[in-house]
Design a protein that fits this description.
It contains 16 helices and 19 strands.
Length: 608
């Protein structure tokens, strides 16, 4: 019998192996996109990248095996390769072991049918595989309708919206106007129909610990997220897990890489979309390919990006929400979490709704600084200022971002209203994770201080029986969890620091902190006084302010006996804020793409 040449056998195995790899990559990328509401813009490019990885792996393996020896029956080897790939891949991507076993059995049946078929049928099978691959890559996967669920029809829908990096004094409903125009007409209209909290405070000066407080009702020292590598412990009850137990469908959308499944924020959500979750991060083939590259000393395929995260605008979030609305189960009570990244730097709104000409643009690069920078007023904390014109232009850019996300928020709320997921019988909470500095204390951006511009954030609640008023009492973002739980009828049988916003206040203060950093900071505010402690070189540096006389915190009090009660309260909170810590926080090694995304947002310092 004629034995095929070694080269011919190798090329045949390489081509067929590449075809199997392309189809495997197409199926995997489509499944990942379906599961994670992957950003539609990047689907085609990333799916092709996954297909390329699999085609290279399988084709290269086929070429290597063909060069080792001339195979008399190469199709048997290909079937073994396909079956081995299924055994390796399906448990990695399947949602359960039974489904993985079903998939492996299906691949085994296909391999057997291929081996017992005639040459003509085998050719037809290969052609069908090619057509199937093209069809899988032809369009974004559509979601199947959610199955009907037996639920309590009296439960209200709840929408929680978090806008990133927005200080209270830049919303028009809090008294700010930009170039003679309101910055937030849609949010203003919401505030007019519900309760606006004049004095709401974030518990941390950057996104991940602040949102973790919203989700858990715990101060950062208890939930444990205090560094760029910490993830939310999986044994902590969260807002989503509480509502899931009450019968809610829980859906989340986040434009910020800080709030993603990789950092534990998807627990309790049935579906969780992140604009920065790449198909390639979840691909078994790409993971294996990257390991081989590192072993061979080859460079990474990740391309450097400009400041900011691609695919993370309010339009991107809204597009993902609208995709979900096409198949949402509108008969089941819904908890919907929306996290918009705007107006996080860089301040470059996709659409300038103010329409001003001649304001100019400010290069933000000189404003960027290491997260290791000391907080004000420590030595070395001062960053260079801008001219008056440049400062005006920079704040215009920031306000334009606010106006843009305000407009897009209004549009998606209208879509939710039309879909019946946000009616007059449903609730909406609109809050913000932290503010932004514009050199009030000689620094820029956020994360390094606990001054008013950093932790005084807007908070608006709308819904049935919510009074139309401007509430003057002090409240915290930790209060969001017990408030929403009360609407859902849930009983919180776990410890938390928050109080329901719907009941008389027991706390007469707000507490914020940035613990376990290079420069730990704690802050306590009452109605008129504020105390800040900074730990530096084994010493506590104290800053005290009378906010009635000095709302901008420009002149620290030197000696004031009225601060003594605050010292006692702050000392007690420092000691007890971690009392509810359930377990040691897990630190997550950052993937290359996540490391890059956090660098682009300024949370992690690069290597240069």
């Amino acid at each position: 019998m004629h034995r095929p040449s070694r080269l011919r056998s190798a090329l045949w195995l390489c081509l067929l192996g590449a075809l199997i790899g392309m189809e495997t990559g197409a199926m995997e990328s489509r499944w990942i996109a379906y599961q994670a509401f992957h950003p539609w813009q990047a689907f085609g490019e990333e799916a092709l990248l996954i297909c390329f990885h699999y085609a290279t792996l399988f084709g290269g393996l086929g070429l290597l095996l063909g060069l080792l020896r001339p195979w008399r029956h190469p199709e048997r080897l290909l079937c073994v390769l396909a079956f081995a790939a299924a055994v390796w891949l399906l448990p990695y991507q399947a949602t359960s072991l039974p489904w993985a076993l079903v998939g492996i059995a299906f691949v085994a049946a296909c391999c057997w049918l291929y081996l017992v078929s005639s040459k003509k049928l085998r050719a037809i099978y290969l052609l069908g595989d090619g057509v199937c691959t093209v069809l899988l890559l032809a369009g974004y996967p559509r979601l199947a309708p959610s199955p009907p669920t037996t639920v309590n029809p009296s439960l209200p829908n709840i929408v929680l919206v978090v806008l990133d990096t927005l200080r209270a004094d830049h919303l028009s409903c809090y008294g700010h106007n930009a170039v003679g125009q309101p910055t937030s007409p849609q949010i203003d209209a919401l505030a007019a129909t519900g309760t606006l909290f004049e004095h709401a405070y974030a518990q941390a000066p950057w996104t991940r610990p602040s949102v973790a407080t919203i989700f858990t009702g715990l101060y950062p020292a208890s939930h444990g997220i205090v560094t760029p590598y910490d993830q939310l412990p999986n044994n902590l009850p969260t807002l989503a897990t509480v509502l899931r137990q009450q019968g809610y469908q829980t859906i989340g959308f986040s434009a910020n890489p800080q709030i993603s499944a990789g950092f534990g924020f998807a627990q309790g959500f049935q579906r969780f979309w992140s604009s920065t979750t790449h198909l390639t991060e979840a691909s078994a083939g790409v993971h294996l390919g990257n390991k081989l590259k590192r072993a061979l000393g080859l460079p990474s395929t990740i391309r450097p990006l400009e400041r900011g995260v691609a695919g993370s605008t309010a339009d991107d979030v809204n597009h993902a929400v609208r995709m979900w609305l096409q198949s949402a189960n509108k008969k089941q009570p819904t908890f919907l979490y929306l996290h918009y990244l705007d107006p996080h730097d860089p301040y470059s709104a996709p659409e300038d709704l103010f329409g001003q000409v001649g304001m100019g643009r400010v290069d933000e690069k000189p404003l960027y600084a290491s997260q290791e920078l000391p907080p004000f007023p420590l030595p070395g904390s001062q960053l260079p200022s801008l001219s008056d014109d440049a400062m005006q232009a920079l704040q215009y850019q920031y306000d334009a971002e606010i106006r843009y996300v305000d407009d897009r928020l209004g549009k998606i709320l209208q879509d939710l209203r039309q879909a019946g997921l946000w009616t007059e019988q449903d609730y909406l909470v609109l809050c913000y994770d932290h503010g932004e500095e514009f050199h009030e204390h000689q620094q820029w951006q956020h994360g390094r201080s606990l001054f008013e511009e950093m932790i005084h954030v807007p908070l608006i609640v709308v819904g049935p029986n919510i009074p139309e008023k401007r509430e003057q009492s002090l409240v915290e973002l930790a209060d969001v969890l017990p408030t929403i739980a009360q609407w859902s009828g849930a009983t919180l049988d776990f410890p938390h620091h928050g109080e329901s916003l719907l009941q008389p206040r027991q706390k007469n203060r707000v507490f914020s902190h940035r613990p376990r950093e290079k420069y730990p900071i704690w802050a306590l505010r009452t109605q008129s006084k504020k105390l800040i402690w900074i730990f530096h070189q084994q010493k506590l540096i104290e800053l005290a302010y009378n906010l009635n006389d000095d709302p901008k915190e420009s002149n620290a009090l030197l000696e004031d006996a009225s601060i003594d009660p605050l010292r006692k309260q702050l000392n007690q909170l420092m000691r007890t804020s971690a009392a509810f810590a359930p377990a040691k926080t897990q630190s997550k090694p950052l993937s290359d793409s996540m490391q890059q995304a956090l660098e682009q947002l300024g949370y992690v310092d690069g290597q240069d």
